[in-house]
Every structure is written in C-alpha cells, then in structure tokens.
Design brief:
Helix content is 62%, strand content 4%. It is mainly alpha-helical. The longest helix has 33 residues, at 168-200. Bound molecules: protoporphyrin IX containing FE.
C-alpha cells in the first residue's frame, strides 16, 4: 500500500510543524502562567504589546507568539486531514486510522498486537502489510491527540489572559493541553522508533509517505 499524494504532502507539513511546535512548547515562556520570565530561552526581553481592551501593557515572548500562530496553522492542517479521512484517497480513510471500530478490525488488531509484542523483545517488527491495524491505530491516536490539542489550543488562543490570572476553567484547559502534549510526545517517540526499526529491516516505509515518491 502507498499513501495518496495529499496524505503525503499533509504528513510532511504536519510532521514538521508539530515537531517544531513541541520544541517551542517545551522551551517558551508563557505570559500569564506565573513563570519567572527570565528563565525562557525564546524570549524578547523588551518586547511589549498594548492590550486595547484593558489598557494594560503586557510583555510578549517570541516563543509564545510563534506557538500561537503555528498552532493555528496546525489547526488548519489537521482539519484538512480529518476531511481527507472521508475521501477515497489511498491510505486516508478513517477505517485505516480507527480499525478497532468494527469487529473484524478489532480482531486483526489483537492478532497483530500479539505478533508485535513477541517481536519487540528482539527489536523486530512484522512487515507493514502484516501490521496495518497496529500502525493505523497509532496514526489514528496521533491525529486524535493533535485534534484535541488543536481544539483546546484554539479556545486558549482567545481566552488566555496574558496578564496573570486565569479562571479555573482556563487553568484546567491549560493543564489538559499539557497532559495531551505528553501523551502525543510518547506516541511520536513510538512512531519514530517504529519507522527506524522498519527501515533497519529493509521495509522502506519512508518511500510510502515521502511527498515526492511514486
Ligand atoms: C521524523 C519524523 C517522522 C518520520 C520519519 C515519519 C515517518 C512516517 C512514515 C514512514 C509513515 C508511513 C507509515 C506506513 O508505512 O504506514 C508515517 C505515517 C504517519 N505519520 Fe509520520 N513520521 C514522522 C513524524 C510524524 C509526526 C510528527 C506526526 C504527527 C504530527 C506523524 C504522523 C503520522 C501519521 C498520522 C501517519 C499516517 C498517515 C496519515 O494518516 O496521515 N508523523 N510517518
């Protein structure tokens, strides 16, 4: 199986922006989160913005500004990816991402998982044709986590108070955003490790997702 061109292009854009976004998210200083501003790596120390509605001058950090706008770009990318899930483009369908929603997919996933755990002790993965349901489920969880982060991130974009205090709800959303980020990082680590193992075994799966490939 190969992936259709739109899926490949979206993968390249999404992979690049999400990896950059995660790095920025870990390094930036968040105005209004109660951090010590001096500890940020990505800070413009003397950049200030005028908040029209409150008349307060707030300190801006470059990292947080980039995080906000890259976040909105990722929202657009993941929306397009979700739309593609309802097309017939090869490899794009929602059944590939969520095989466990039907009984036969669930059965295949259980069988493939057994093979996966047996092979993992020897750092060996089954060929991609025999691990479609496991790989698809991880990809589906990645898309779901990015979607959740995108939804919460959009709410925070409009509701986050950069002057200091957050309401209890916004605080909770901010913390949820961080927890999902941790989950997404673990999934991406597993995803990238699986790609490395497949490549070492000569499965050449990168050719299936490269935007320029056949
Ligand atoms: C160094 C970074 C990465 C590499 C080398 C890589 C490589 C790959 C490869 C080879 C596949 C095809 C797997 C198959 O044959 O079935 C794939 C699929 C996929 N990857 Fe990555 N990936 C990377 C980063 C990411 C990131 C950061 C994300 C999430 C934002 C991501 C999300 C996905 C998804 C969702 C798919 C399935 C295609 C789709 O449904 O859109 N990948 N990746």
């Amino acid at each position: 199986m190969t992936y259709g061109k739109p899926v490949r292009i979206l993968h390249a854009l999404l992979a690049m922006s999400v990896l950059i976004q995660i790095a920025i998210g870990e390094l930036m200083n968040v105005p209004g989160a109660g951090d010590e501003p001096g500890h940020a790596f990505l800070q413009i120390p003397f950049a200030f913005a005028y908040e029209g509605h409150t008349g307060v001058i707030v300190e801006e950090t470059l990292g947080f500004e980039v995080h906000e706008f890259l976040g909105l770009f990722i929202v657009a990318l993941v929306l397009i990816r979700l739309i593609l899930a309802f097309t017939t483009i090869p490899g794009a369908g929602w059944r590939d991402l969520f095989p466990y929603v039907c009984a036969s997919g669930c059965k295949t996933l259980i069988e493939e998982s057994k093979t996966l755990f047996a092979g993992l002790t020897r750092l060996k993965l089954a060929p991609p044709e025999e691990s479609k349901a496991v790989a698809g489920s991880v990809h589906g969880l990645i898309i779901l986590s990015v979607t959740c982060m995108a939804i919460i991130g959009t709410v925070l974009f409009f509701a986050w108070n950069e002057h200091g205090r957050q309401t209890a709800l916004i605080d909770l959303l901010g913390e949820t955003h961080e927890v999902i980020a941790g989950f997404l990082e673990a999934l991406l680590a597993a995803h990238i490790l699986a790609v490395i193992l497949h490549q070492r075994q000569g499965h050449n799966i990168i050719a299936r997702i490269k935007p320029g490939g056949e």
